[in-house]
Amino acid sequence: MCGIAGFAGRGDSGVLRRMTDAITHRGPDAEGHWAEEKAGVFLGHRRLSIVDLAGGAQPMWTADQQLGVTFNGEIYNHAELRAELKMRGCQFTTDHSDTEVLLHGYREWGESFVERLNGMWAFVIYDRTRQRLFGSRDRFGKKPLYYFQEGETFGFASELPALLQHPHCPRNLSPLSLKKYFAYCYIPAPRSIYERVWKLPGGHSFTFDLGSRELKTWRWWEFVLDADPSFSPALVTSDALCEEIRETLERAVQRRLMSDVPLGVFLSGGIDSSAIAALAAKHVPAGQLNTFSIGFNEPSFDESTFAQLVADKLGTRHHNDILDLDKSVALLPEIVARLDEPLGDGSLLPTYLLSRFTRQHVTVALGGDGGDELFAGYDPFRALRAAELYAKFVPRPVHHAIRLLAARLPVSHENVSFDFKIKRTLMGLSYPPKIWNAVWMGALEPSGLAQLFREPCNEEEIYSEAIAAWDRCAQPNLVDRALQFFTNVYLPDNILTKIDRASMMCSLEARSPFLDIEVVDLARRIPWQLKLRSGQTKWILKRALDPLLPREIIDRKKKGFGMPIGRWLREGKFTFDHARTFPYLDAAFAERQHAAHLSGARDERLFLWSYWLLSQWMKR
């Protein structure tokens, strides 16, 4: 796991070094810089050494010096690809570096070679023969890649602070991106917080021609649901499918045990991380698998007893740290200051705390990310059928009255409380189904966005990513359309971004077996009726994992990995300067929302958290 940066055009080696210095946390073990000043090409790298510790230095070049690469990520099938490339006559100079596979793969198979990769990556290859840069990002965008083009200069980096070290990188905030931030709690690709600075979306590649200075980007992969008729609930035996799920996931876990440094598993006590731990334990000597969890002194946010239950059953070497959440909140300003752009996910702090604790023992950790998105694990999936009926039969004036009545429910700040779910559900149902999921998960509904930005809310523009995911779904049912949203938008731009930033702040590599391409291809072919059944989320996955996990884990309700943000706001743990004005935002609206939350009249935790986080980020 590493950090990359570079540019083609105006600039010098000093600029390149400042860019890589800004992402030292992503690669504390080594650094590499390469410059061809005549061509104006500069490649930089920061390394967190995981595979081939002696031979994996970057930027790496082919023996003839015609291809060079700077690479962030892991290619889990690199040994198989290396063997195939050797049979085609390729001469390798490293012992087992996955980086070198990228160079020979590009030379042998061209731009489409990325389709053969199983892993996570963001890389840029300098092709000196064709005088161009070629870059790519993995299917779900697990590894980040930002870029800009201003005139003759093209720059790229793993994080925005590195990109901003280039003097020609734009620095103006984007009003539309700010709107999307409050609409989603994150900024979906390809946009970034800055105008004319972009994220390369997951499953995309680019070329930058050094002669014409033309930049081209294209999508090479997209998650598309395609239910296999042979998996029809009327035809398939659940036992056979469950066995296939277990075997496929186990192969994905086994691939991710590849490491030349100490490795462990995040263990929350939920079914996804527990499944990864159970399958990893089958391939590690008894009692040698390290598992990690953190617990909190607030019961509604603590899952450590479930993690311990799984660890005891599996016989892992379990590490658990019990923390005082109220004391941990003091770390938030420091964490937020290190974010490259605002990210309003409420589990940012515990994810960072878990990563920091885990990094004290190992350098690599496997986690359960992706299971909820692939197998319909979130609460909104359970609400879809009732929401459809409600929207069909409840007239708009009656809906408004019901919202007013629900608003009178007492506010609770427990984790995913009943009143919170009811109010959020009704809020989403005030709008078209295409944006239900985004509104349910966002900081503000469209009417609130209109007030905050003092102009009408253009729903088509602000929620364009959610609407595109809805429209691209070939299946007309609400479950598949929700799956498309959570997998194509929420997963890459919120969940994976949070995991990457929180773990890499601690120089820890996080791996996600559920996002192995073999697992993904199986999951997308399973009909939604086997994922959501009789109101039970992840039905087929739970059946598949039943032989591996304690019944208490299979049957437990989803808790989530969050913080008591609502209570902290009521107690004044976050300081707001409402007299300070922010570009494009109505501070008076924010002050009213704050006052309503302090009085207990409304629960405005998601907006206030996102607003406070933005204010802290802007102080930087």
Which stretches are poorly predicted, pLDDT < 50 over at least 5 residues? none
Helix segment tally:
26
- Mind summarizing the main beta sheet? 6 strands, antiparallel
N→C terminal distance: 26 Å
Q: Which architecture of the largest domain does the CATH hierarchy give at level 2? A: 3-Layer(aba) Sandwich
> What fraction of the residues are assigned to beta strands by DSSP?
15-25%
**Mean pLDDT rating:** 92
- Overall body shape: globular
Brief overview:
By secondary structure, the protein is α+β, with helices and mostly antiparallel strands. Helices cover 42% and strands 15% of the residues.
Set out the fold topology:
Blueprint: E1 2-8, H1 13-21, E2 30-36, E3 41-47, E4 60-61, E5 67-75, H2 78-87, H3 98-109, E6 119-127, E7 132-137, E8 146-150, E9 153-157, H4 160-163, H5 175-184, E10 197-199, E11 204-209, E12 215-219, H6 238-255, E13 263-266, H7 271-281, E14 290-296, H8 304-314, E15 317-323, H9 325-328, H10 332-338, H11 348-359, E16 364-366, H12 371-374, H13 379-393, H14 396-406, H15 418-428, H16 436-441, H17 446-453, H18 459-462, H19 464-472, H20 478-505, E17 509-511, H21 517-525, H22 539-545, H23 551-555, H24 565-570, H25 587-599, H26 605-619
Parallel strand pairs: 13-14, 13-16, 14-15, 16-17
Antiparallel strand pairs: 1-3, 1-9, 2-3, 4-5, 5-6, 6-7, 7-11, 8-9, 8-10, 11-12
Helix pairs in contact: 2-3, 6-21, 6-22, 7-8, 10-26, 11-20, 14-15, 19-20, 25-26
